[in-house]
Design brief:
It is a single chain. Helix content is 36%, strand content 20%. It is globular. The chain starts with a strand and ends with a strand. The mean pLDDT is 96. Strands 1-2-4-3 form a four-stranded mixed β-sheet. By secondary structure, the chain is of the alpha+beta class. β1, α1 and β2 form a beta-alpha-beta unit.
């Protein structure tokens, strides 16, 4: 099995990375991929792209899709953007402290996603999406 969580958005030549995962995975092996959809830019050291569910399925077309859906939902999207906003508007020396304080205040709200992340339409505002795929047997 291969776990690829919050990595592919940082890979410049993502098709090459997916081909390599396909190459090294044995037939019948599983790949779990998590990628951002509605998520702020995060350069560690680079941030190249976002995916929709259809785009993720297309990226992983060489595999048989077992499951595909919302990993973190609309509330996570709202909160991550709100926290990034706090960093942008806070004065330089206070950025980290303001971000940390705001994070502690809003963190419990993330549990609202447990109620709505599987709702029809939740994928429209999903923070991140996932796929579990299997390498086809010859």
């Amino acid at each position: 099995a291969i776990e690829c969580d919050a990595v592919l958005e940082h890979v410049r030549m993502v098709d090459n990375a997916v081909r390599e995962m396909h190459r090294v995975l044995r037939p019948g092996g599983l790949l779990h991929v998590v990628v951002p959809f509605n998520h702020p830019f995060h350069e560690y050291p680079a941030d190249y792209r976002r995916w929709t569910l259809d785009g993720l399925r297309e990226l992983l077309a060489a595999f048989a899709v077992t499951e595909c859906g919302v990993r973190t939902g609309p509330t996570a999207t709202l909160l991550t953007f709100a926290l990034e906003y706090v960093k942008v508007v806070s004065p330089g020396p206070l950025k980290k402290a303001a971000y940390a304080a705001a994070g502690w205040i809003v963190w419990p709200l993330r549990y609202l996603d447990l109620l709505i992340y599987r709702a029809p339409g939740a994928h429209i505002l999903a923070n991140s999406i996932y796929a579990i795929v299997r390498k086809r047997t010859p």
